[in-house]
Specification:
Blueprint: E1 2-8, E2 17-19, E3 24-25, H1 27-31, E4 34-37, E5 40-54, E6 57-64, H2 69-79, E7 85-100, E8 104-120, E9 130-132, H3 141-158, H4 165-171, H5 179-224, H6 233-242, H7 244-253, H8 257-264, H9 281-287, H10 289-298, H11 300-311
Parallel strand pairs: 2-8, 3-8, 7-9
Antiparallel strand pairs: 1-6, 4-5, 5-6, 7-8
Helix pairs in contact: 5-6, 6-7, 10-11
């Protein structure tokens, strides 16, 4: 079967526009791939097979009706090389203006539906490309131009946007901006929002680090002053991070190591606190073992702190 090029998207049609192969809708055509005689629906002369896109071209294989005299006549001209071209019959669904290399600004058909195709002697003439309205009516040459202009005008009108004065001021554009101007303003607004988020995250991290250090310093001081033991440090740090004032108020009420020494003096044989002021664990062990044992029973935390403070010296 002879292979025909139905469309070349790199070449302007005789009507002055390009047709993108990728924008074609072929479901209806594949279900009924009719071959007409010069787009005349009364003259079905065959059918098409293997509709494919090859590079910039849309191609199909022609099968002529062997029982139709006109079809055999055209088939013979194809076999003898007198007819080499083909023409599509299609409905234009969408179009836009594009700036193309070498060709400059041109109308580009971006979405269309293929209805039929015909072998033609001169595929570049204006009659070689048949366009239809959505209702299936064939369009005359002047109607084709009006149809495309209508699509382009509709798209241009859709791209016209009216903003409120407040929105225009916020974006830094006019109240009726061009779509490109509006897109640029939105991109700038998005970039500012992203910078703001990063700055906020940085400030939150710095605040979190400050609170953590402040809480840790407060609790470390309390441990060094003997107000709490090291095993309670983590709990107090968490409290201070959540509520620094509450943690500080609690720690301020706790007795430090000086008051603790006075309390230690109440244990053992000698009941006077002054006698045991400044005693370390070894001193207690040597001078008043009964008092040290009593301390371990009545004040286990104090006993553990005294023992720990002695060990840390050596």
């Amino acid at each position: 079967m002879a292979v025909f090029i139905l469309n070349d998207e790199s070449v302007l049609t005789s009507h002055g526009f390009l047709i993108l192969n990728s924008g074609g809708e072929f479901d209806r055509f594949r279900a009924n791939p009719v071959m007409l005689n010069s787009h005349d629906e009364r003259g079905v002369i065959g059918r098409w097979h293997n509709l494919t896109i090859e590079g910039s071209t849309l191609q199909a294989e022609a099968e002529f009706d062997a029982d139709d005299a006109e079809a055999l006549k055209i088939s013979g001209k194809v076999e003898r090389g007198f007819i080499k071209g083909a023409s599509m019959g299609l409905i234009i669904l969408d179009a836009e203006m594009r700036e193309l290399p070498v060709l400059g600004y041109q109308v580009v058909i971006t979405r269309w539906e293929l209805l039929e195709a015909s072998p033609v002697a001169v595929p570049s003439n204006k009659g070689a490309l048949r366009l239809y309205a959505k209702n299936g009516k064939a369009l005359a040459t002047n109607e084709i131009t009006l149809s495309i202009e209508s699509i382009l005008n509709k798209k241009n009108n859709m791209e016209k946007i009216m903003l409120s004065a407040e929105a225009a001021k916020a974006l830094g554009v006019s109240k009726d901006p061009e779509i490109t101007e509006l897109n640029a303003a939105i991109m700038e607004l998005s970039a500012r929002a992203e910078r703001s988020i990063k700055e906020k995250e940085k400030a939150e991290k710095e605040l979190s680090d400050h609170r953590s250090k402040q809480a840790t310093d407060l609790v470390n001081l309390a441990v060094s002053e003997g107000k709490i033991t090291a095993d309670k440090k983590e709990a107090y740090v968490k409290l201070a991070i959540a509520d620094y004032k509450q943690a500080k108020d609690i720690l301020d009420t706790l007795p430090g190591s000086t008051s603790f020494s006075s309390k230690l003096g109440g244990f053992g044989n000698n009941k006077q606190a002054a006698d045991r002021e400044g005693w370390d664990y070894m001193k207690w062990l040597k001078e008043d073992q009964p008092g040290l044992a009593e301390m371990a029973i009545k004040d286990p935390e104090g006993h553990a702190a005294l023992k720990a403070s002695y060990k840390s010296k050596y």
